[in-house]
Specification:
single chain; nine-stranded mixed beta sheet; two-stranded antiparallel sheet; PiggyBac transposable element-derived protein domain-containing protein; PGBD
Amino acid sequence: MTNLHGNRKIPGWRDIDAEEFRAYVGLLVLSGVYRSKHESTKSLWSEKWGRSIFRATMSENRFHHISRALRFDDKLSRPQRHVDKMTPFRKVWNMWTHRLEMLFSPDRDLCVDEQLVAFKGRCSFRQYMPKKPAKYGIKIWAACDVKTSYAWRLQVYTGKAAPDRVEVNQGMRVVLDMTEGLQGHVVTCDNFFTSCALADELLKRKMALVGTIRQNKPELPPHLLQAKKREIFSSIFAFTNTHTLVSYIPRRGKNVLLLSTKHRRPDVSKEGKRKPVIIEDYNKCKGGVDNLDMVVGTYSCRRRTNYWPMALFHNVLDVSLYNAYVLWTLIESSWPKQKGHRRRLFIEEVGEMLVNPHIAKRGRLPRSSAAAAVVTNLTAAASWTAPIIQFKGRRQCEFCKDKRRVFNTCCKCEKYTCKDHSVSICNDCAV
């Protein structure tokens, strides 16, 4: 699709192959690991201030051409598929999210929350979320493993199904979609999702729920909603056969309500603030998606763009790099464990492995001496073949009267000699 769009829109377009596309992705990955997501390409390719690996991989103009032409579907066939707002990116998104679920089995604790991909361009389903740092962007529902923050299932929110109809119980629908096919897990979510109806439905699917709940829910007992004249750090519990509700006062006038189908006893911590165990468990598990946002943003490869599928594509790369790191460290637990920056080492190695095959096949050397040296070294390494070593058996020394059996031979005449009939010389004298 990129070649199709490039031939239509960019004069003098040269078709891109899989190897060059991997090199392009590798440059995006390396720009993220070098914390250069807000740095201009002119600076990245600068001979004085930039990094030589960018100039060694491809020219700045070629990088711009690929960025302009990168597409994920055929625009001319879009009217036939226009019922879906995600049409320009739907095929790639479905392939990617299907692979995420296949490669990892989440632990017992699962967190469901929302993620915002920063984007201020034109997009029919762009959202405004004032509590998020970016505020404007594309909202993604995410289900993450609490222990590792692995993004197990993701779903893009494309707005209302019908413009004139309000979606009822959206939070419940999202959690059920995010946990479909699972059993025996504990789902943690905030008050946007939590309700007694959701807890009942999850119990039918053999899953438990822990989450904060809003005070306007009609099923809440009235005595749990009263916060006036209550002692600070006090807790009130309410029980049914399957549900547990707790009301906790962390400070004067503040009432925190939680619903749980995991806990069955009114346990309270004996430490200073006397928090209920339900709240402590919720605090341990609520940050799965938030931690994913934090680690993904640390080495993000996002570049400025006005095309929303590109913003999603950059987010796909960021999440994929983190998920790959989780899988790699689970399989290779001994991989540089003593280093605190091993995720940075992992991403850097991934970026280099993506660009190296393309660098080794470059036809012309870059003008920069540093970039030319990178190309020359990789080309020499790719063309070098290991010498074939022939192992020789022991034979008799040709100068000894007692005919000792030795391995060593003379470097010129190749006669077998022992230590007594051989001389050691340095490299300079041997020339």
